[in-house]
Amino acid sequence: MTTDASEPFTVSPEMEQWLDQRVEKLLAERMDALVKERIAQAMKRDPAKRKVAIIASKGTLDMAYPPLILATTAAAMDADVRIFFTFYGLNILKKHGANKLQVAPIANPALPVPMPNILGMLPGMTPLATQMMKNMFAKHNVVSIGELLQQAIELDVKLIACQMTMDVMGFKREDLIEPIEVGGAATFLGFATGAHTTLFI
Fold first, then answer.
1. DSSP state of 51
2. Can you name the residues that pair with 51 across neighbouring β-strands?
3. Model pLDDT for residues 167-201, shown as the tens digit of each residue
4. Could you give the angle at which helices 61-76 and 125-139 cross, rounded to 10 degrees?
5. Which residues, listed in sequence order, are joined to residue 52 by a DSSP beta bridge?
6. What pTM, to 2 d.p., does this model score?
7. 129: burial class by Cβ within 10 Å (0-12, 13-18, 19+)?
8. Low-confidence ranges of the chain (pLDDT < 50)
9. Alpha helices (H) in 44-144, listed in sequence order
10. Which CATH homologous superfamily contains domain 48-200?
11. φ and ψ at 113, to 5 degrees?
12. CA dist., res. 98 & res. 93, Å (int)
């Protein structure tokens, strides 16, 4: 059987419908594959997003909580976390120091029970304010600073003691808890410059 080359090629309506459906299916599959590929690329972890750098510069009871709470939360979310303890923040790392942190009522209007400075200056008011805060935390089942430090260690949060602060304030390595690292600003900044989250507290 021969066909005339001059005659136009024709496709039956059924064949045309089948071809359209086939093309649409192939396009849909390809588009779906491309979308999944883009989503997979977008979901890839950016290493910097998994790094949290925190500077703890204060050594009062109320200011010891924020860096430790944020650090343990970030570590529980699978982030690489490091806290740089400098100046008064170094007191948090002292052996048995977590139990001795206090909160002063003087010039602290944010206390749950605001206190005039004239009363805050009276003997025994700082221990009283400290005990009030500890009682408030205990009432709401908030863990202690010592327990938070232990949680941080168990979650592999790196605790870095500022070498300069240790030298200036006369701290010795044996005065501080285990395990910690001792390093300078350059040590911490080497990590912090690659982190997406850096906090100064």
1. E
2. 80
3. 999 999 999 998 899 999 998 999 999 888 899 98
4. 30
5. 81, 197
6. 0.70
7. buried
8. 1, 118
9. 61-76, 117-120, 125-139
10. DsrEFH-like (3.40.1260.10)
11. -115, 95
12. 7
